[in-house]
Design a protein that fits this description.
four-stranded parallel beta sheet; two-stranded antiparallel sheet
Length: about 270
């Protein structure tokens, strides 16, 4: 029986079950560890992948799915707290204009991500396991808003890497919803929110639809009847949740399997 290991940001690990959690219920998988952390960037994703390869003794039957995050993210690891994710730099309140001026180079961050991807592929091939990769978007850095200095768009068009990235194992990017997307989930906590606000993360059903369309066929798997019924239950339950800060707790109470799938985000040694 295979083990499943997944890596990524909030599109893989969120306050509600994502594609990774539903995939893990397939009878093909005996064990599952979700190493994703909401808000982390590609440096942390790569580091956690290396940690997993080093400590889990991957076997040929094991399946590893890596969902790369956005380029404009900055990760910090503290032994007392584990990974301290900032999310997208555009939303971070930690970094000021001087930091952007002195330390943030979008082309360099693109270069780092390409190196992470290249090294990750090499390590996974050496581990002789089954692996697939996807990304949050098409690995492109869009313009940041006016809160920070304007930055040029910088995608991953580094021709030297064209033949290094093994695209046969890449899956269509999962992506966020957009502001004008239909069927967005809305949060509304009367104690803290002046009005309902839309969550751009894919709902559980949207996340699973991506997996059934792109990921499962690549792995040679077929959606089970149990998974079809489960995603309806998860989506229905999630639709009734309105307080974001309680959503994870409510989901782990409702779905015991979800509570036990999350790998600790801390520094374990």
């Amino acid at each position: 029986m295979a083990r499943l290991f997944t890596f990524g940001c909030s599109l893989t690990r969120y306050v509600w079950p994502t594609w990774s959690n539903i995939l893990a219920t397939h009878p093909h998988f005996e064990n599952f560890e979700n190493w994703a952390v909401s808000g982390i960037g590609n440096f942390a994703i790569f580091e956690r992948l290396v940690e997993c390869i080093t400590t889990r003794n991957l076997q040929p039957d094991d399946v590893v799915i890596v969902q790369w995050s956005g380029i404009a993210r900055h990760d910090t690891l503290l032994t007392s707290k584990g990974w301290v994710p900032q999310g997208g730099l555009v939303y971070s309140k930690v970094f000021d204009t001087e930091w952007y001026k002195n330390f943030f180079d979008p082309a360099a961050y693109s270069f780092h991500t390409l190196n992470f991807i290249t090294a990750a592929q090499t390590l996974l091939n050496s581990a002789n396991c089954t692996w697939r990769m996807t990304s949050m978007h098409n690995l492109c850095l869009g313009d940041l808003d006016s809160e920070h200095p304007p930055l040029p768009k910088c995608d991953l068009k580094w021709t030297a890497y064209d033949n290094i990235i093994d695209r046969q194992y890449w899956i269509e990017s999962i992506g966020f919803n957009t502001e004008d997307s239909e069927d967005l989930h809305e949060w509304y906590d009367k104690e803290t929110d002046s009005a309902p606000w839309k969550d751009w993360h894919r709902t559980p059903a949207q996340s699973w639809a991506w997996a059934t369309t792109h990921l499962l066929p690549s792995l040679g798997l077929t959606e089970t009847q149990e998974q079809k019924e489960l995603i309806v239950e998860v989506e229905t339950f999630t639709r009734n949740l309105k307080k974001l800060n309680q959503a994870y707790l409510e989901n782990t109470k409702k779905f015991e399997w979800f509570a036990h799938q999350q790998k600790n985000i801390g520094y374990p040694y």
